Amino acid sequence: MRLVQIALLILIVLLQYRFWFAENGYLDHRRLLDSVAEEQSRLAAQQRINANLQARVDDLKSGNDAIEELARQNLGLIKPGETFVLIADE
């Protein structure tokens, strides 16, 4: 009877070891879950960036207001009859 108890104890210890530390064990599972959560976070951030860029592209395609704004800001262009005023930073 004592031999059966020792054998069962050894079996339980081996199974617990495999559960916690072996390949595809609990610790690997936790690492994978953390990795998936991190990737989902990065994906969500990238999707927000893509949505902003798509909105900007749509705005540029749909009208002249966005193109005019970019031309005024980046190139300093003005319409005929307007006066360009540059405010210098101190």
Automatic annotation (TrEMBL):
InterPro entries: Cell_div_FtsB, FtsL/DivIC. Residues 1-3 are cytoplasmic. Residues 36-70 form a coiled coil. Keywords: Cell cycle, Cell division, Cell inner membrane, Cell membrane, Coiled coil, Membrane, Transmembrane, Transmembrane helix. Residues 22-90 are periplasmic. GO terms for cellular component: cell division site; cell septum; plasma membrane. The keyword Thylakoid does not apply. It comes from the Bacteria. GO terms for biological process: FtsZ-dependent cytokinesis. Transmembrane segments: none annotated. Belongs to the FtsB family. Part of a complex composed of FtsB, FtsL and FtsQ. This is Cell division protein FtsB.
